[in-house]
């Protein structure tokens, strides 16, 4: 999601939840994203995941920004849409993780613990490195 702030563009990014990400900031923020099956339309899945992770609806028109590969190997295809939201109203779904790793203990965490509006320059510093080309693609629009 992006919005216009005067002559500038701001992007809405989210911060992963859970103990691993608690003290990480720069390079930890991400576009809302998720996984989908081969039988599911990618854009529909992106809208579903955006709603699940933020509680906000993604409404078009949508513009595809491209696909990036994360360090984990996960491929992320991203669409942009113009919108607005109050980050304080973010409501994320939860997931279960093993924490600490290999401990056998399970805990439920929010997938996303917060969201925030960033200027493009702030986003370049805060977004995951492999997602930076998406900011360039957005500006090219």
Distance between the termini: 14 Å
Q: Helical element count?
A: 3
Rg, alpha carbons: 15 Å
CATH class designation: Alpha Beta
CATH topology: Nucleoside Triphosphate Pyrophosphohydrolase
Q: Return the domain count.
A: 1
- Which runs of at least 5 residues are low in confidence (pLDDT < 50)? none
What's the CATH superfamily, by name?
Nucleoside Triphosphate Pyrophosphohydrolase
Tell me the overall shape.
Answer: globular
**Content-based structural category:** alpha+beta
> What is the number of strand segments?
7
How do the helices and strands follow one another from N- to C-terminus?
A: EEHEEEEEHH
Order of strands across the main sheet: 1-2-7
Main sheet specs: 3 strands, antiparallel
Average pLDDT for all residues: 95
Named CATH architecture? Alpha-Beta Complex
* Percentage of residues in DSSP E strands: 25-35%
Helical residue percent?
10-25%
Per-chain topology:
Layout: E1 2-5, E2 8-16, H1 42-54, E3 63-69, E4 75-80, E5 94-98, E6 106-110, E7 112-119, H2 120-126, H3 132-140
Antiparallel strand pairs: 1-2, 2-7, 3-4, 5-6
């Amino acid at each position: 999601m992006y919005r216009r702030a005067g002559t500038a563009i701001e992007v809405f990014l989210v911060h992963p939840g859970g103990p691993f990400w608690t003290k990480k900031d720069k390079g930890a923020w991400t576009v809302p994203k998720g996984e989908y099956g081969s039988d599911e339309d990618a854009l529909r899945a992106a809208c579903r995941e955006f709603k699940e992770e933020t509680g906000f609806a993604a409404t078009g028109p949508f513009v595809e920004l491209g696909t990036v590969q994360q360090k984990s190997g996960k491929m992320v295809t991203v669409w942009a849409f113009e919108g607005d939201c109050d980050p304080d109203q973010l409501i994320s779904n939860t997931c279960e993780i093993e924490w600490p790793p290999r401990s056998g203990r399970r805990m439920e965490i929010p997938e996303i613990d917060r969201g925030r509006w960033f200027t493009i320059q702030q986003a370049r510093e805060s977004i995951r490195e492999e997602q930076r080309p998406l900011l360039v693609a957005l500006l090219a629009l």
